[in-house]
Write a structure and sequence with these properties.
six-stranded mixed β-sheet
Length: 379
């Protein structure tokens, strides 16, 4: 898969400061993230963070359809299918490590990052988006973690951010892969500001005209700017899809038994097409993914952000070796049969010792590929 990230530094009106603009460019695949794109983005973000002239970063996706639809799972599939076990594991380790390093950098970035979440924001795209200090949605925004359909799990920090949502909501989104729109993203605090798609150039112009000061002030100024631009657009927000069923979802997802929770979700009736689609995705999704997601939101709440990414790196590489992820990508994206042959037919049939193994680290702490992540960062 080809793809790149383009970079531009926009001069501010004071002739001293600049706005760093990074654009994900892989429109043929809805800006899916290749390994090289992640390397380019991480390197430039690190450079900009140390550049005193760069006061804010604007992260965008090329084209009109997507911010970013996810990671380069096709390349992962070919590595899992064609390479030796050791070569495949090395590829997955390298890919997920750079992805999670990039995600973590955005979460902990010292300068304001505006993520322009226009269109599809899914999977790996959520990983880049969710950590930004200022997250923008538009009428076209569609956010989701749909990994249950391909036998992976909500990674890219999902172990962290799903646990930041109200009880039951993160679990529901992980189990069903249900997409949420801009209004729900705002209501769930997944996004900060709603703007119209055509406001992008206006935002950049205002950023260039800003009176930039110190880091703390700069974050506040960006917030004020986006808040002021958001006010006239409120009446354009779409009708919520999740919020009307908030209490029903929480009730269905309460309890300590995954099988019961899944049955509760599947038993929800008379709530419209959005819920029906969510139920279907759960019903035909990977039972192993369901178990992973359940453990993420019931046993990992106390983990720091860095610990979540370390856990996920091992989880992701182990999922590659297990075969479920490969099968899901084959059925959904390669052959497009739409009928993956999961290792287990139902949630109830899953051998939980397999899940235990998936959650066991591949590396001791001192040699972990993400050992350099700072556990002291408090978020």
């Amino acid at each position: 898969m080809t793809g790149r990230v383009s970079f531009e530094e926009l001069e501010c009106d004071d002739s001293d400061h600049k706005i760093g603009v990074a654009i994900l460019e892989n429109t043929a695949s809805l800006n899916a993230l290749t390994f090289d794109m992640l390397v380019q983005l991480k390197d430039k973000l690190m450079t900009w963070q140390d550049d005193e002239h760069i006061v804010s970063v604007f992260l965008d996706g090329a084209g009109e359809k997507a911010f970013c639809a996810g990671g380069d799972v096709r390349s992962m599939y070919h590595a899992m299918k064609s390479e030796t076990v050791s070569t495949s594991q090395a590829f997955l380790t390298d890919y997920f490590a750079i992805e999670y390093q990039c995600d973590y950098l955005i979460h902990t970035y010292k300068k304001p990052i505006i993520a322009w979440g226009d269109g599809i924001v899914m999977g790996g795209g959520i990983g880049l988006y969710i950590g930004a200090s200022h997250k923008v949605v538009t009428p076209k925004s569609r956010l989701a973690m749909p990994e249950i359909s391909i036998g992976l799990y909500p990674d890219v920090g999902g172990t962290w951010f799903l646990n930041q949502l109200e009880p039951g909501i993160g679990l529901f989104l992980g189990l069903t892969g249900a997409p949420i729109n801009a209004s729900d993203a705002i209501a769930l605090n997944i996004a900060d500001n709603f703007l119209l798609s055509e406001y992008k150039s206006t935002v950049l112009e205002h950023l260039q005209a800003n009176s930039w000061r110190g880091i703390d002030d700069n974050h506040a100024m960006v917030s004020e700017l986006l808040d002021s631009l958001s006010q006239p657009t409120i009446h354009h927000q779409p009708a919520s899809q999740l919020v009307p069923y908030f209490s029903h979802i929480q009730a269905a997802c309460s309890g300590s038994d995954l099988n019961t929770i899944c049955q509760n979700i599947l038993a929800m009736e008379g709530m419209g097409q959005w819920i029906e689609t969510a139920k279907h995705t759960l019903e035909v999704g990977s039972p192993i993914t369901a178990h992973i997601c359940f453990r993420q939101v019931t046993q990992c709440q106390s983990l720091s952000l860095a610990e979540c990414f370390k856990l996920e790196l091992s989880l992701s590489v182990r999922c590659g070796a297990l075969g479920e992820f490969q099968e899901g990508v084959r059925a959904r994206l390669i052959d497009k049969s739409g009928e993956p042959n999961w290792l287990f037919k139902t949630v109830n049939e899953v051998d939980t010792t397999i899940i235990d193994t998936l959650f066991t680290s591949l590396w001791p702490e001192e040699t972990h590929p993400l050992a350099q992540l700072d556990n002291t960062v408090s978020l």
